[in-house]
Design a protein that fits this description.
The chain is of the alpha/beta class. It starts with a strand and ends with a helix. The model has no long low-confidence stretch (mean pLDDT 97). The structure holds 6-O-phosphono-beta-D-fructofuranose.
Length: 319
């Protein structure tokens, strides 16, 4: 293999730039030509492709977002869209592709691999919802952004003796909510992996009030539903007033943490090695701090699991 490509796709995540840098530098280290595809799979269809060199990725390891930009591309879910992408790969002589993104992006990578264009995926999403890896690139940074925000909300919650419901991202996964809740000592953590426990949340709020607790923090993962609706439910069931903060896209921005930069660098370099050693349709990941890789179909078929021991611990620590 002499020419490979790299793209970022789906929701951006801090650390994607560090991953791009590692892919580009590792390819050059192996004397392979490396092409950057702009705007994800849409850019592949449109032929928005540029050759990259060492300088293309200078001074980006610390930057949030993705210099290649990202998109969610419905056209690439069709045969026609995939074939247009393959035409562009042929035109530029690109023999394999590294796809940095989440499960939607990996489906595109799987299709290309099936059609004879080998792809390797790097999990890049703040949701930490990919099976076969303990962590995805961007999760640690988003987590730190969330806890910084909660710390600030706690200040005002305590001054005004209020209960706050803070809605965090994560799509269908509760990892961000669980880790943030544990790191911030939240009174209740609501995640989609566990059934609604409204009465338990209310009981815990009441127990806190009875022993003189003046403020409370409830973290709600977006996969559970809207924090505003949850506030209504608490009001209706227990006549308790709450304030709501939806953290939103602030969670996707910012300079990546050291942990995300290192993870992205390791996975980026590993992805190039996998492609050059003839692997196809694999997802690079990290488990127990060791680099691993799994079949893309298995990763997509398997559901990411939340750490239930951590969930139990969070309950035990916020009695
Ligand atoms: O997958 C990352 C993510 O930020 C999710 O947590 C969230 O549900 C979604 O993307 C938001 O997508 P968009 O930026 O397209 O609104």
């Amino acid at each position: 293999m002499n020419k490979i490509g790299v793209l970022t796709s789906g929701g951006d995540a801090p650390g994607m730039n560090a991953a791009i840098r590692a892919v580009v530098r590792k390819a050059i280290y192996h004397q392979i030509d490396i092409y950057g595809i702009k705007n994800g799979f849409q850019g592949l269809i449109d032929g928005n492709i540029e050759k990259m060199d060492i300088g293309s990725v200078g001074d980006i390891i610390q930057r949030g977002g993705t210099i290649l930009r990202s998109a969610r591309c419905q056209e690439f879910e069709t045969d026609d869209g995939q074939n247009k992408g393959i035409e562009q790969m042929k035109k530029h002589g690109i023999e394999g592709l590294i796809v940095i993104g989440g499960d939607g992006s990996f489906r595109g990578a799987q299709k290309l691999t099936e059609k004879g264009y080998p792809c390797i995926g790097i999990p890049g999403t703040i949701d930490n919802d990919i099976a076969g890896t303990d962590f995805t690139v961007g999760f640690d940074t988003a987590l730190n952004t969330v806890i910084e925000a909660i710390d600030k909300i706690r200040d005002t919650a305590s001054s005004h003796e209020r209960t706050f419901i803070i809605e965090v991202m994560g799509r269908d996964a509760g990892d961000l909510a669980l880790w943030a809740g544990l790191a911030d000592g939240a009174e209740s953590i609501l995640i989609p992996e566990k059934k609604d426990e409204l009465q338990e949340v209310i009981n815990r709020l009441r127990r806190g009030q009875e022993r003189g607790k003046k403020h409370s923090i409830i973290i709600l993962a977006e996969g559970v539903g809207s924090a505003f609706d949850y506030a209504e439910k608490i009001k209706e069931s227990a006549d308790l007033e709450t304030r709501v903060t939806v953290l939103g896209h602030i969670q996707r921005g910012g300079s990546p943490t050291a942990s995300d930069r290192v993870l992205a660098s390791r996975l980026g370099a590993q992805a190039v090695d996998l492609l050059l050693s003839g692997e196809a349709g694999r997802i690079a990941g990290i488990q127990n701090n060791r680099l691993v890789h799994h079949d893309i179909s298995e990763v997509l078929a398997e559901k990411h699991m939340i750490d239930m021991e951590m969930y139990q611990l969070s309950k035990e620590l916020s009695i």
